[in-house]
Write a sequence for this structure.
């Protein structure tokens, strides 16, 4: 039976994007046809430059600040910036793969990565600014059809 | 084969509600039976007055603040308020449909919109305060049954 | 037809965890085989001590602050702390079940609760620190297989 997994990424924070790719790449490794649709803030994840600016979510920042009481007086933007720096450092020393690596791995494993064409417009991005190896930008209907035309499918949303 | 798409909305922020309705309305336009279940903060989206106060998520506000360095010293509530104003202005000039318009369009397309009866209680909302054209308030089991009784279904969560 | 519901919890905030368990427990009560996979911040929900520190999401805190204008000058960490206190008080007086109660109920109803083994490592948690009655820690592939090996399945992500 042909099974598909669709993953919708509308968040652009590290702590959503990492599980999205970990699930996508695991699923593709298991032989499940896997497609990802990047819309809203998610589109920035596929952007060669903007990917460098991904941060933790505010909720993630607050979680990590609870382990570092010295951070609790920072304002939101500072708090997110500071905890993101700390986590990126920790990830590097623990050899957690970067999002760039996960994207490359996804493409190698045959995951289909669809940029949302409306999100490109909304954020003023030209498709030449995106990583190589992605599918052409599409609308939501193409992605819904990807899911719906399989005999069996599931969707995960981040 | 009868296919259904269920969309659960527990978030009440603009940047979750817009993709929820865009996917719902696209799906219904494709002939897929589409139902939405509004619970937790999501219930406020269906409220005739409270819908006017929807804001960006904090993560969205932080993203937009990165494009507007003048905002970085605001506290959370101010930051979310300010960026929401900016985005609403931008949406208006780009003719992005409002959430009110998307709800009307959803109803016209036959999307079934289910308010969660527990969420109504939790937020002290009487069902007369909700938009016209919705389904009667239901519990989670009715929505799970909507999904589960189709031969094929998928769920998207916001 | 054997149906399954998979619920992925990567968020560790009260306002995501409560709907996750409410849906899981409703689904299990309806005779649907239900499994939950706790990864990223979600792993802290299964920790006997850390569960006591769950807070509202920042977006939830901002929503509640709009009903309590006295809170609007607090910084993020204070705002989340203060609104969480208020809501926990309100939940207690309204007899909303605690997350601990919902976990126990889930186990009693036969919901399979899978801790993610990578998340345990990432957050430095030993499985002896988790609640009793859970499944053994697994990787993402075990959970994807749980979903995918059913004739019919859906996934909800929080």
């Amino acid at each position: 039976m042909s099974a598909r997994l669709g993953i919708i990424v509308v968040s652009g924070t590290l702590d959503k994007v990492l599980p999205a790719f970990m699930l996508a790449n695991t699923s593709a490794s298991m032989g499940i046809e896997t497609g990802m649709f990047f819309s809203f803030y998610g589109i920035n994840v596929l952007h060669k430059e903007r990917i460098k600016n991904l941060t933790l979510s505010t909720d993630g920042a607050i979680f990590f600040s609870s382990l570092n009481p010295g951070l609790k007086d920072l304002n939101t933007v500072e708090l997110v910036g500071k905890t993101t720096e700390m986590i990126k450092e920790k990830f590097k020393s623990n050899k957690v793969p970067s999002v760039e690596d996960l994207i490359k791995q996804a493409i190698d494993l045959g995951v289909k990565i669809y940029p949302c064409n409306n999100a490109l417009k909304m954020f003023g991005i030209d498709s030449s600014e995106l990583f190589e190896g992605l599918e052409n930008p599409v609308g939501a209907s193409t992605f819904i059809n990807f899911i719906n035309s399989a005999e069996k499918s599931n969707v995960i949303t981040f």
Q: What stands out?
A: The two ends of chain A are 26 Å apart (CA to CA). Chain A has six helices and four strands. The beta strands of chain A are 3-9, 33-38, 112-115, 152-157.
